[in-house]
Amino acid sequence: MAQPIPIHPSPPPLAGAGEKHDNAIVARGLTRTFGKLVAVDHVDLTVARAQVYGFLGPNGSGKSTTIRMLCGLLLPTAGQIEVLGYAIPQQAEALKRRIGYMTQKFSLYDDLTVRENLEFVAAVHELDRARTRTRVGELLERYWLGEQREQLAGTLSGGQKQRLALAAAVLHEPELLLLDEPTSAVDPQSRRDFWDSLFALTDAGTTILVSTHYMDEAERCHRLAILDRGRLVADGTPHELEGALPGQVLLIDCANARAAQNALADLPGISAMAQIGASLRVLGAVGAEFRDTVAARLRAAGITAQVAATQPNLEDVFVAATRQAPKPAAKARA
Amino acid sequence: MNLRRLAAIVVKELRQLRRDKLTFAMIVGIPIMQLLLFGYAINLDIRHLPAAVLDQAHTAQSRRIVTAIAQTQVLDFAYRARTPQDLDALLRKGQISSALVIPPDFERRLVEHDRPPLQIVVDGSDQTVQQAVRQLAALPLRTLLDPDSSVPPANVEIVNFYNPGRRAPVNTVPGLVGVILTMTMVLFTAMALVRERERGNLEFLIATPVSPTELTVGKVLPFVGIGLVQVSLVLLLGVAVFAVPIRGSLFDVYAASLVFIVASLALGVFLSTLAKSQFQAMQLAFFTFLPQILLSGFMFPYDGMPRPAQWLAEVLPMTHFMRLIRGILLRAATLADLWPSLVALGAFIVAMLGIAIARTRKRLD
């Protein structure tokens, strides 16, 4: 009963000949296996230019593997990829001049200073010396690293390292940025600042593919894909995804939310519950009958509660899409 | 290959090296420590040394003495020389390590024994060879030739070429140049290349236009310079502390060292393609040290080793460098004299780099 629900409110357009220039990334049937493990399972992706496209998914859902295949670092087991008009992996070398890639783990040199790291990356991209000087100066200012200029990268704070990594990834002004969980080691203020700088880049025409497991970040994306165990389980704008949630969200206000959760634990039709402070958020079947059933069950348990339908949010979508099948069901399938 | 990128990688490596105090200390510390540690040589009972005979007497007696000495099995008379100049050339090229010289007036000297009737010339630059040949001086010549003779025994004269003082460091120090270069060059390159992968820098780099060749050459180039500095350091100390002679040309010394440095770096690059972590790289490097130190002729003379060990030794770059550096420093040989060793090192470099490049892919899987 509790299979994840695929949510595709507006199916991604298939790439035609004329669409080449509108989409930065088109992937069809993208699959990658490691031995018996299917890390990415027939994923279809279409990312429009000058947008922030989010990859939302739990750890191990295949986000990093997908990003690595898109920039040619890993060979797909099956499927077609076209990035900025290049067929990948065949034309990966040509693509590498036009993309910026920020790895999940800090991958610049700890034993070089901020300036030395950026100068090295500039040389790698064949920027001449004059251009290197202006560009490094610009980026140090834009990403507030002026004071850390001569500091070893290994001694920077999490937020500073991440800004340095972003500066290195955009140094050669790439058309496409692939960011693999860029904010995982960063405080909330730095995360907000970081996202502001991402939108500054899309305003200038850069396409950004960013993976995250933060809901607030996913909410800010132009478009969003939810990955779960290698499969694409939802794809759309955050608003579309919330609107297309199959089911309704009930907010239960009562004196003892934990008691209410226990009372509803085995009620059929409930797909997820989460306590938010003093209230309980219940994701369940559509229709007024369901709300009445919930209210009746609570009354029977002697709990006085107010049950009201509420607007679904992205977390509800995420929970509905990535919910694990119950253990016995999983066994039956295997 | 893009020069701007190559230069950037070299500069980056040098900057990192400058901040890596331990590696920096090892570059200078290893040569000094090894040089002082290997103050001694290891002696062995040696047989079958390649030798030449120069028989100027051509008598029945002289032929009998050659047979008698051959029967001791210490010397193998592989060459017959016509003139003393022949002997010189054979010795200098390292084709023989000793020679038996029978003077034209051999029989007269045997009877009158005013001068030694026989001369054995030995390449004294190898301590162990020299000692083995010295045993021959004690041979009872008279009994060999004529058991009933009543003439008092005549003596064999040993002429010690290249190392008249019979000092061990003269032989050890040139060999140490090879040992030190092997240890530092192979280890440092293998580790430097694997470090990039281990620390995650490679994932960033392979998403850029850097080519594997640029990355490898850029990372290895600084070590060529470091290797030459080490050669200078060992030679300087060897000359100053142990009075090691530099008889050949200094240019040849550096040219031979440069070829050997590149061969060791190539081995390091190859090992880096096998190792997943810096620790594994270190283990692999040590795995190659032992045969190189034991079989190259640094510790035990090549000629004294069993045949299979000699075949293995021929594959090791250090064996060839030992021949080159000892030949040039101690016997005043030229690179032209020792060309087979240069060819062998060249072949080793091509093979190692070929395998390494074939194994390098610009991907994570």
Arithmetic mean pLDDT of chain A: 86
What is the assigned CATH homologous superfamily of the largest domain in chain A?
P-loop containing nucleotide triphosphate hydrolases
Order of adjacent strands in the largest pleated sheet of chain A? 6-7-8-3-9-10
The count of DSSP E runs of length 2 or more, i.e. the number of strands of chain B, is: 5
Radius of gyration of chain B: 25 Å
Annotation field: number of helices of chain B? 15
Order of helices and strands of chain A: EEEHEEHEHHHEHEHEEHEHEEHEHH
Query: What share of residues of chain B is helical?
Result: 55-70%
The CATH class of the largest domain in chain A: Alpha Beta
CA-CA gap between termini of chain A: 16 Å
Beta-strand residue percentage of chain B: 5-15%
- Structural class assignment of chain B: alpha/beta
Q: What's the rounded overall pLDDT mean of chain B? A: 84
Question: What labels would you give this structure?
Answer:
heterodimer; A: about 325 residues; alpha/beta; Rossmann fold; Alpha-Beta Plaits; four-stranded antiparallel sheet; 12 helices; about 35% helix; elongated; disordered C terminus; B: about 375 residues; abc type-2 transporter like fold; five-stranded mixed sheet; about 65% helix; about 10% strand
Question: Could you walk me through the main structural features you see in this protein, from its secondary elements to its overall organization?
Answer:
The complex is a heterodimer of chains A (334) and B (365). With 334 residues, chain A is α/β, with parallel strands linked by helices. Chain A folds into 2 domains: 17-242, P-loop containing nucleotide triphosphate hydrolases (Rossmann fold), CATH 3.40.50; 246-325, 2-Layer Sandwich (Alpha-Beta Plaits). Chain A has 12 helices and 14 strands. Chain A has a 6-stranded mixed sheet with strand order 6-7-8-3-9-10, with helices on both faces. A 4-stranded antiparallel sheet of chain A has the order 2-1-4-5. The longest helix of chain A is centred in the middle third of the chain and has 16 residues, at 188-203. Chain A is elongated and about 75 Å long. Chain B is of the alpha/beta class. Chain B folds into 2 domains: 3-37 and 167-359, no CATH class; 49-161, abc type-2 transporter like fold. Chain B has helices spanning 3-19, 21-37, 60-71, 84-92, 106-112, 127-136, 141-145, 168-198, 201-205, 212-242, 250-274, 278-295, 307-315, 317-331, 339-359; strands at 49-55, 75-80, 98-102, 118-123, 156-161. In chain B, strands 2-1-3-4-5 form a 5-stranded mixed sheet, sandwiched between helices. In chain B, helix 3 links the parallel strand 1 (49-55) and strand 2. In chain B, helix 2 (21-37) packs antiparallel against helix 8, helix 2 packs parallel to helix 10 and helix 8 (168-198) runs antiparallel to helix 14. The longest helix of chain B is centred in the middle third of the chain and has 31 residues, at 168-198. Chain B is elongated, with a radius of gyration of 25 Å. Chain B starts with a helix and ends in a 6-residue tail after the last helix. Residues 40-45 of chain B have low confidence and may be disordered.
